[in-house]
């Protein structure tokens, strides 16, 4: 049995609520994710030349009415996953279920997606293309996969935007991709599945560190697991995608935990490894130095900072150099320039880009002007705002401890929102760390709405839907309904109206 506050009876009244394992909720989400997996065969990030479904009796699912049916089933599956997640969230917030059912639910919802075609993205094909470049002696930081004259089944599936674009990822992840392509060759189905399995190492790191982070940061473990592990952002974007952000997050969370547990050398080592997978992890490193400094005896915070900075650099430098050299066979730091490649993406999900586009459209009514100057100006201004915000958060974190972790999470969220581009799964960088802190129910409802919105603003094929305004209107309505459903089941009374017995003629 579990006790929970009954709002209708006052804050001091407690209602006894049966603690039951949420079998039906978990089953609902599992059915939904199974539908996602099956429908993705026709409506997801399918292969250009599919050896299984390209021809034969099941090829109809990729074309015409078959594809339309697959798309409808995919969105139905998504709806079931979100419905199950929100129901599970209400149970967690009411104290009716603990941490174990949340982990079981997340595992059941993720399992079908391990063998699914990519969902809402085609990035995994870029991972394999860049790994193929490294495998065959090409520099992924100088050219895109289009330069390869081997493995055509790998190259042809890379999105057109990234065919000639240098890799924006860390050298260690390119080494992982190289190994994967070495194992799978041109077998893209096996390549995608193995990439997911490798990325799940990051999920294991997150799962291991979250209970310990919660003890330090004051959150509730079931709520944190529900928010960071069982959410559609993790289940569908990071696993169903899949995205290497999950692998980076495993090293980031374990690194932050190591610092909280006063193991600073291990902490800097782990986060530097995370940076060698995805450079974003570097944002956390200056905050770790403050945390290290706060653990040193004597002196003021600035003096302790410099006493911590030197050993931190002593750990970071060798790990960075050796990691880069082992991965690439040389001290190739071209990945710093490669990080500018994603800036080719321009859409209003990135706030500065969206503001620039608004001003462009206002000016375009009166005079024929190109959009690029407006977007460039606001992006440049956003870089300044971002630099000021991150530096301020870093300075306010000088006391170290929990406050430094919270401000590092804020800095990671700011980078995801203000630095171009903003891609939906980028917000997990800050959310996963922030999830270990206490949360208000209304704020969690906002996270539900944002999570649903950020999955749906891309089509299942991986193409963005941000300028399909009727579609976005529907996405916004669904997101708001999902957010309200966390606060109150069936907030519009739709299910109740459907179930209400007919009372006329009685």
Automatic annotation (TrEMBL):
Broad class of where this protein is predominantly found: membrane
Transmembrane parts of this sequence: 26-48, 68-86, 98-120, 188-209, 221-240, 268-293, 305-328, 373-392, 404-423, 443-459, 466-484
EC number(s) stated in the UniProt entry for this protein: 2.4.1.-
Enzyme class: transferase
Keywords associated with the record: Glycosyltransferase, Membrane, Transferase, Transmembrane, Transmembrane helix
InterPro entries referenced in this protein's UniProt entry, alphabetically: MptA/B-like (IPR049829)
Record bears the keyword Cell division: no
Pfam families from the UniProt entry: MptA_B_family
Location of this chain's protein in the cell: Membrane
GO molecular function: glycosyltransferase activity
Keyword Glycosyltransferase: yes
Topology class, membrane: Multi-pass membrane protein
Protein family: Belongs to the MptA/B family.
NCBIfam families in alphabetical order: MptB (NF038066)
Name by which UniProt lists this protein: Alpha-1,6-mannosyltransferase
